[in-house]
Amino acid sequence: MNKMNPEVDGYLRKAKKWREEMEKLRRISLDCGLTEELKWGKPCYTFQKSNIVIIQGFKEFCALLFCKGALLNDAKGILKKFGWQAARRIPFTNVRELLEMEPILKAYIHEAIEAEKAGLEVNFNKNPEPIPEELQNKLDEIPALKAAFAALTPGRQRGYILYFSRAKQSKTRESRVEKCMRQILKGKGLND
Fold it and tell me: By C-alpha distance, which of 127, 110, 32 is closest to 73?
């Protein structure tokens, strides 16, 4: 088993819920040869500095999150999709489930390590929503705006696209684009 990180020891000591489940997920992850770190306030397991899995505790369940889970085969159909495009997670509500699934979890972790070794990357949908015509016209008209919009994170771009698209009338969409131009030029998101 790989070396335990004292920061993760502290995290687990403070855990009010799912402690036993998280300790079991920790042992499984370390048994797979991963390096233990504390990132984003959660136990994170890496291979050559690349994030492989993160242990998460929620109100209704705890989970093992696969950072690039979209690349995994998921022959057992247990990976759940949620907000992140690349990540997938497996939720648990008790230690018994973990004990039953331990060999499967280890196989999935090893598959994730192999994907990392092979340098596989998830293809992200940069803008899954179509850019409204009123925004596209401004981007074509003002090169600085186009550059500033392209420099925004995908999430910030999407936030603007959704906000502009929700307006039913073209006049309202144009007005929204006009009002947000300064914010975009400053490199800020809609709610920053």
Answer: 110
The values of phi and psi at residue 35, to 5°, are -95, 135
Residue 30 lies in a domain: yes
Instruction: Tell me whether residue 95 is in a domain.
Output: yes
Same domain, 81 and 166: no
Domain-embedded: residue 125? no
Q: How far apart are CA 192 and CA 187, in angstroms?
A: 10
For the record, the structure tokens of 192 come out as 């920053």
Q: Is the pTM of this model over 0.70?
A: no
| Whether residue 87 is found in the same domain as residue 155 | no
State the average pLDDT over residues 114-141.
85
Asked if residue 124 lies in contact with residue 154, where contact means CB atoms within 8 angstroms, the answer is: yes
Q: How many helices (H) and strands (E) does the chain have?
A: 7, 6
Phi-psi region of 40 (alpha: psi -120 to 50; beta: other; left: phi over 0): left
What digits encode the pLDDT tens for the residues 132-165?
999 999 999 999 999 999 998 888 888 899 899 9
Q: Report the C-alpha gap between 74 and 6 in whole angstroms.
A: 32
Residue 52 within any structural domain of the chain: yes
Residue-wise burial string across 132-152, b where 16 or more C-beta atoms lie within 10 A, e elsewhere: bebbeebbeeeeebeebbeeb
